[in-house]
Amino acid sequence: xxxxxxxxxxxxxxxxxxxxxxxxxxxxxxxxxxxxxxxxxxxxxxxxxxxxxxxxxxxxxxxxxxxxxxxxxxxxxxxxxxxxxxxxxxxxxxxxxxxxxxxxxxxxxxxxxxxxxxxxxxxxxxxxxxxxxxxxxxxxxxxxxxxxxxxxxxxxxxxxxxxxxxxxxxxxxxxxxxxxxxxxxxxxxxxxxxxxxxxxxxxxxxxxxxxxxxxxxxxxxxxxxxx
Length: 227
Prior knowledge:
About 15% of the residues lie in helices and about 40% in strands. By secondary structure, the protein is mainly β. The protein has a single domain, classed as Lipoprotein localisation LolA/LolB/LppX (outer membrane lipoprotein receptor (LolB), chain A). Mean pLDDT is about 85; it is low at about 1-20.
């Protein structure tokens, strides 16, 4: 079981992207095509995904913020991200509507879910997609030290030219073909780094997990995606 403390230490104690490795069971080394095929097969049969996460966000001038929480995803574009205090917030989508609730702001933003939102929430690449070779114009196996010892790192270049995302890097566990880490590198030199712990798949997450009712007295506003 991966140590939460060890992950936080590794993510915050060394310059990005070469971070201190987190020990885990020895995994076989795979070539690029075998690794891609394994990831595609694993996610093609996956109905849902849940995990604890640690998120390190860096802005263009390299200032960083650390957050932790729980992530839930389903193949039909349902999503929930619960961020722990002190930066408490919730992102909840039933596949049609996305609710963003930040208790400190005393309001909820409501947006329609669109295909373009995949760029805003790249974790959606994890489920319900058509495979790495079709989704990305280039997939490269990087020879860099992973955060999770034994993992292998793939660099993904989006098919469509994005105004925000320059590339995505994923750390793949060759034994399970699951993604332990996802790094989104943006065109403005900002980045978001997710490390996933206690991953569970096909656990039949209840539909109620993706329902959201604004707390009493909280203002609901329409986001730009709903206009």
